Amino acid sequence: MRMVDLIEKKRDGHELTTEEMTFIIQGFTDGSLPDYQMSAWAMAVYFQGLTERECADLTMAMVQSGDQIDLSKIEGIKVDKHSTGGVGDTTTLVLGPLVASVGVPVAKMSGRGLGHTGGTVDKLEAVAGFHVEIENEQFIELVNKNKLAVIGQSGNLTPADKKLYALRDVTATVNSMGLIASSIMSKKIAAGADAIVLDVKTGAGAFMKTLEDSEALANAMVQIGNNVGRQTMAVISDMSQPLGFAIGNALEVKEAIDTLKGQGPEDLTELSLTLGSYMVYLAKKASSLDEARARLTQAIQDGSALETFRKFLIAQGGDGSVVDHPEKLPQASFVYELQAKESGYVSEIVADEIGTAAMLLGAGRATKESEIDLAVGLVLRKKIGDYVEQGESLVTIYSNVEDIKAVKEKLYNHISISKERVSKPTLIYKEIV
Ligand code: URA
Ligand code: CA
Predict the structure, then answer these.
(1) Alpha helix locations (H) across 101-135?
(2) pLDDT tens-digit series, residues 59-108
(3) Of the candidates 298, 324, 350, which is a domain's last residue?
(4) How far is the CA of 103 from the centre of ligand 1 (A)?
(5) Which of 86, 113, 218, 305 could be a cystine partner for 299, CB 3.0 to 4.6 Å?
(6) Domains identified in the chain, total number
(7) Is 261 exposed, middle or buried (0-12, 13-18, 19+ CB in 10 A)?
(8) Are residues 371 and 259 in the same domain?
(9) Among residues 364, 430, 375, 350, which one has the least CA distance to residue 117?
(10) Is residue 287 annotated as part of the catalytic site, yes or no?
């Protein structure tokens, strides 16, 4: 096989065979195919697209390019959730204990990463003593015992994806639906998921800004999952404004605790119940989505979801008493209110800009080397559609520095107030089940 022929074949709009897709990914991973040929191929894919079968082949070739996590010693169907990323997205912290409390095994591999706030691991480290540096064996034991454990990213997962993503980044080929979908799905599958629930965000704070693109990505990922034997479901959810109220590490842990107690924000609660129902159903712990939802609602009401969170924290060295005393989480030195300059209805809270404001306070990393401040962040007091009186608080700002002029300015510039009544945005645009 010659790479030049395969580039030509794709350039001219023909479908590559499974053997050809495997040849490309293997050759690129082992270095026998040069970057310039891979770049030309990626550009051909960018213009011609990938068929459903090619996407499935690409995904599995990337899965096989590195280690695959073996979760076979964990009893039950391992369902993983993936979000395409948003602002103040506290769902992972809620979903883990919530679905584990009804018997779904959650074996979560999580990272830190860059962004408006830290990743799941950073957030959990806001709980004193909690750590994810555990051995694989202990990880598996903990999931079998408590149904929930989180381990830091390790091993050599999907090296082909890492290399290809870096190449796409500098050759203007990131934005190809087939390449994005295969990239995301390969990582979930290599991490050991038997079934996958996807939360594809849409709006200003999302990777996909339009509903049309979000829907195309969701469909492409669901097809891949189902074609490679991992049952997959997806929702398309709103990320025009941040999810819930809290954006920040310790602040989101507190928000997750509130939600597990049944006292969380309406949107975060609803999205968690929807995604959680899919997870419970796919794990075969309920025979319908309605039954799954009823079980989760019960787990919140009877306290078992919160108890699962406590046990999980303690099992990984954390102070479990934070679930009763969230004031034990790291606290910021300064608390400010952002007062509304006029009365009216909140009409816009631009998610990505609000996320950047949280990052300016130190809640997230701008570069890999940045230090993260677990205590700081924002809590929205109003969401789109709410009425606010002049002088009333729009946002509470938790800071460890006194001078927050730039943060306030950013917030004022990206929160709009209208004299006319504004309806609440749709939370879930579409469900692909
Ligand atoms: N996120 C990924 O993981 N891969 C892509 O290709 C794009 C976004
Ligand atoms: Ca939140």
Answers:
(1) 120-124
(2) 999 999 999 999 999 999 999 999 998 999 999 999 999 999 999 999 99
(3) 324
(4) 31
(5) 305
(6) 3
(7) middle
(8) no
(9) 364
(10) no
